[in-house]
Design a protein that fits this description.
The strands form four sheets. Strands 1, 2, 5, 6, 7, 8, 9, 10, 13 and 14 form a ten-stranded mixed β-sheet that branches. The chain has a six-stranded parallel β-sheet with strand order 17-16-15-18-19-20, sandwiched between helices. Strands 3-4 form a two-stranded antiparallel sheet. 39% of the residues lie in helices and 17% in strands. It has helices spanning 36-51, 86-89, 137-140, 151-172, 188-196, 213-219, 237-244, 250-257, 264-270, 280-289, 310-319, 338-360, 390-399, 415-430, 445-454, 472-478, 491-494, 515-533, 535-550, 555-567; strands spanning 16-20, 55-60, 68-71, 77-80, 91-92, 97-101, 104-115, 123-129, 176-182, 220-223, 234-236, 261-263, 274-277, 295-297, 370-374, 403-407, 437-440, 457-460, 483-486, 501-504. Bound molecules: pyridoxal-5'-phosphate (PLP). Pyridoxal-5'-phosphate (PLP) binds next to α1, α15 and α16.
Length: 569
């Protein structure tokens, strides 16, 4: 990192959009992310850096990471802290700011990490940190564990992120044109802004509210990321008062955030002029969940250079030069000679096969197809759908052999998710000798790239309509790996049957109980025959995934849309 880039002053002359996210996947060795939300945040900022959208990001330092996953021989998940040293990657911020939490003063410091860019010095990322010697020992670990601790801890983290973040940006002298809340965790920032822009009391008539709602709304953008109701944070007002005191006037807050509980999503919805879901279907579902709000759709995308394997990238460099900066050029993927694309895919596959052997001892055959599946292990993602009928699955493999590679973490408090990992391991034992299968521990960005590029088919079988977008299938598309997926999230837009990949079941917006049968039918009648019996036909689908999915579902397109429709509206 150049000396100048170590200081926030380099970044404060220019008007920026402040992007708030509880998690950001900055790079593989910095474990400040748990999954899709963090990877999306990272890809958004990487694209912003590439195309020169002026941004500054705010997140927590999460020194103990999310967790490192180990799997014991029974298939049980064991969680270890995933400590990292911010001093190795980032420089200390010159400022600290004070918050009052639970009647104690809590100082918030932080770190500057710079996402590099070819355009203008990169995107600064502020990693907020309460682990300072001046703080009470009880407060030093507020920012340690991503999504860790109890409800009180979560609430404190969200106050540090939203309110601490706003104070830190101001202390460092950032000039801001707007605020983007990536999910509701940071919605307390709206309260800090209401306070900042409140009318002085001497200007008010009796009974008049001091808060300038339209002004705050004008500044704010909110992206909601899930239709799963329990994933929207709600805090008891009692807890809110104990931790954060009487923020604003309680009547106004209830009006904005809900009568019974403080609902972070409501708060963000009510104080953001621009609100969006992360795929068209998800925006429709969100409009039903939140009647009365105009929920736009900006379908997610992934970062081209980050999610393309080296062997495939070499082929693009040769045949689609400029693809990293203009991923839409990949619409010309038809130019790539078939044998070249296939050889690059086989190289990526060999890398996956090698890693599988190294991590699990399982020997896969690079000349047979691999079905890849990696998800957050939680009930609605249904990572076990493929194993609904083991006899049917075995008979499919008897006709045309295939192999399976899986990965995914369950949140430490998600008992059903952890159970799912055990069930998958039990299936693996049942299928031993018939279908070679591996579960790779500790799913992270590096494993994700290996899997989405080294598989032949990327599988996604969530319960409709709960998958807001899904992004790993987009990563697969960048590597010429077609998706076989339930029609939910981005796949409703991305699937051209037999051209970019295949659908599991029909496109009714809710589940109908037939997905497992539909999955076996599609695998046995279409996908496996094409792979085994018609290589040119298969490579045509690989090219369809590249030219019609990767060319569109990338974060360059996504950030241009945020810039023109949300930030510059
Ligand atoms: C891309 C990614 C995800 C999200 O994938 P989905 O398809 O949205 O489930 C989760 N974890 C990691 C490590 C990823 O790279």
């Amino acid at each position: 990192m150049a000396e100048a880039a170590n200081r926030t002053e380099t970044f404060t002359h220019k008007l920026r959009v402040a992007y708030f996210s509880m998690e950001i996947a900055l790079e593989n060795d910095i474990p400040t992310y748990s999954g899709g939300l963090g990877v999306l945040a990272g890809d958004s900022l990487r694209a912003a850096a590439d195309i020169g959208v002026p941004m500054v990001a705010v997140t927590l330092v999460s020194r103990a990471g999310y967790f490192r996953q180990q799997i014991d021989p029974q298939g049980r998940q064991i969680e270890h802290p995933d400590d990292w040293d911010p001093a190795r990657y980032a420089t200390r911020l010159q400022a600290t700011v004070a918050l009052e939490l639970e009647d104690r003063q809590v100082w918030v410091g932080g770190w500057l990490y710079v996402l590099s860019s070819l355009v203008d010095g990169g995107v600064p990322v502020l990693l907020l940190d309460t682990d300072l010697p001046v703080n009470d020992p009880r407060d030093r670990d507020i920012t340690h564990h991503l999504y860790g601790g109890d409800e009180t801890c979560r609430m404190k983290q969200e106050v540090v992120l939203g309110v601490g973040g706003i104070a830190m940006l101001q202390a460092l002298g950032f000039k801001l044109m707007g605020y983007h809340m990536n999910e509701g965790h940071s919605a307390f920032l709206t309260l800090a802004l209401l306070q900042r822009y409140a009318y002085p009391s001497e200007d008010l008539r009796p009974g008049e509210s001091p808060y300038d709602l339209p002004r705050v709304r004008e500044l704010c953008t909110f992206t909601t990321h899930t239709p799963v109701e329990t994933s929207h944070d709600k805090f008891d007002y009692e807890l809110v008062r104990r931790i954060y005191g009487d923020l604003l006037d309680p009547g106004t807050v209830k009006l904005l955030a809900g009568e019974d509980k403080l609902n972070m999503t409501r708060l963000a919805l009510n104080l953001s002029e621009y609100v969006n879901g992360v795929a068209k279907r998800h925006a429709e579902v969100s409009r039903q969940m939140f009647p009365g709000y105009a929920v736009h759709a900006v379908t997610n995308g992934v970062h081209a250079a980050t999610w393309t394997s080296t062997s495939i990238a070499k082929v693009y460099d040769q045949h689609v030069p400029g693809w990293c900066h203009e991923p839409e050029l990949l619409s010309r993927a038809d130019r790539i000679p078939d044998d070249m694309l296939w050889a690059a895919h086989q190289a990526a596959k060999q890398a996956l096969v090698d890693t599988v052997r190294e991590l699990t001892g399982v020997a896969l055959n690079p000349d047979l197809p691999i079905l890849g599946l990696a998800r957050r292990m939680t009930a609605y993602k249904r990572a076990d759908l493929l194993f609904t009928d083991l006899a049917r699955l075995k008979s499919l493999a008897g006709d045309r052999p295939f192999q399976i590679v899986m990965a995914g973490k369950a949140h430490p408090k998600d008992a059903a998710g952890k159970q799912l990992i055990e069930v998958l391991h039990a299936h693996m034992r049942d299928l031993a000798g018939v279908i070679p299968m591996a579960f790779l521990p500790d799913y992270d960005m590096a494993l994700a790239l290996l899997m989405v590029s080294g598989s032949d088919v990327w599988l996604n079988t969530p319960l409709r309509p709960l998958e807001a977008s899904g992004t790993s299938g987009m990563k697969a598309a960048f590597n010429g790996v077609p998706q076989l997926s339930v029609l939910d999230g981005w796949w409703v837009e991305g699937c051209l049957e037999g051209v970019t990949g295949w659908a599991v079941g029909d496109d009714s917006p809710t589940a109908n109980g037939h997905d497992a049968v539909a999955l076996y039918d599609k695998l046995g009648q279409v996908v496996l025959p094409l792979w085994h019996d018609d290589r040119p036909g298969w490579v045509a689908v690989m090219k369809g995934a590249i030219s019609k999915n990767a060319a569109y579902f990338n974060s360059h397109r996504m950030m241009r849309r945020y810039a023109t429709e949300a930030y510059l509206r």
